[in-house]
Amino acid sequence: MRTWKRCYKILRRTGTLKIFLSFLLFLCVAAVFLALFDPGIETFGDGLWYCFVAATTIGFGDLVAVTRLGRVITVLVSAYGILMTAMVPGVVVSYYMEYLKLREKETISVFLEKLENLPELSQEELEQLSQRVREFGKKNLNK
């Protein structure tokens, strides 16, 4: 559940959520047009299924657009689907990488602050700092 909330926040903050919702709206509108104007697709549900199959580039072949308009809609839905498939994961990964860099910088700044105030630290804080230095050294030597 936490992962979905985090993904939702990332998509919302980056503006990708609007693009994703516009994609879903586009699929619904395309499904309506296909159901109305293409004899190979009889209902809205069939149109929605066809758009999903076209957008994901699965292509089951159980439904087929036979008119020019249907084929143009299929090309647009497929192109939009490919863009969405590439864009959303890229945005999420990029945002997450920036988040990790920010956390690393914050950790380093806290570490440097403690080093600057070394004489004022208690024995327990010095031991914790010493342990972190050892762990940092081990991680960097193993890379």
Characterization of this structure:
It contains five helices and no strands. The protein is mainly α. Helix 1 crosses helix 4, helix 2 crosses helix 3 and helix 3 packs across helix 4.
Q: Could you give a short description of this structure?
A:
The protein has 143 residues and is mainly alpha-helical. The chain is 81% helix and 0% strand.
Low-confidence stretches: none
Q: Given the C-alpha coordinates, what overall shape results?
A: rod-shaped
Largest sheet, if any? none
- Summarize the amount of helix as a percent range: over 70%
Percent strand equals under 5%
Sheet/helix structural class: mainly alpha
Number of helices: 5
Radius of gyration: 26 Å
Order of helices and strands: HHHHH
- Round the mean pLDDT to the nearest integer and report it: 86
Total strands: the figure is 0
Distance between the termini: 33 Å
List the SSEs and their pairings.
Elements: H1 2-14, H2 16-37, H3 44-55, H4 68-116, H5 123-142
Helix pairs in contact: 1-4, 2-3, 2-4, 3-4
Characteristic key phrases:
single chain, mainly alpha, rod-shaped
